[in-house]
Specification:
Layout: H1 7-18, E1 31-37, E2 45-47, E3 55-61, E4 64-69, E5 73-78, E6 86-92, E7 99-102, E8 105-110, E9 113-118, E10 126-131, E11 159-166
Antiparallel strand pairs: 1-11, 2-6, 3-4, 4-5, 5-6, 7-8, 8-9, 9-10
Length: 168
């Protein structure tokens, strides 16, 4: 009598053991990486303003506002007159998403590297230093695993992911 409460548990275990398990198809990312040779990351430049299309984070420093153009760089806005902000240029840093500035040194991710750029004169940035492989490799925007053909072991040597595009 005292074991009657075990009957439902035994029945449930038996039912679960008799079920057939079907394989679940793995879900892969709908994105493919756009690769570039690591040497292209060394190109950090200031140019005329470009259209603001795919914005990321916004950062304020002194009288400037920096608006991230995801994977491309930073729009530099002169906000010394808040009633009339002026887009003065674009700081190109490939594969960038995050920025911090301290003592006129801009720190940005550059693929999986960290770059330091002196912006004492923001229209004439001066490269200071690169620390390689400090950040993890970028995940696709949907955070799903990549197809095996895009796996790290199947990529050309000395390449980095600079952005993502949807597979066709």
């Amino acid at each position: 009598m005292k074991y009657y409460h075990l009957i439902p548990s035994i029945f449930l275990c038996h039912a679960l053991l008799c079920c057939t398990v079907t394989d679940i198809e793995p879900r892969y990312s709908v994105y493919e990486p756009i690769l570039a040779d690591r040497s292209t990351l060394n190109t950090i430049s200031f140019s005329v303003p470009i259209p603001i299309i795919n914005t990321g984070k916004i950062y304020s420093y002194k009288t400037y506002i920096l608006i991230n153009e995801i994977d491309k760089g930073y729009h530099i806005i002169d906000n010394s007159n808040p009633a009339l902000p002026l887009n003065i240029g674009f700081l190109s840093i490939l594969a960038s998403h995050n920025v911090a500035i301290q003592n006129d040194i801009l720190y940005s991710d550059n693929a999986n590297d960290l770059v330091s750029v002196n912006i004492t004169d923001i229209s004439k940035p001066v490269f200071v230093e690169r620390t390689e492989n400090i950040f993890p490799i970028q995940d696709p925007p949907d955070n799903l695993p990549l197809l095996p053909e895009y796996d790290m072991n199947n990529r050309p040597t000395n390449t980095v992911i600079i952005e993502w595009r949807k597979r066709k």
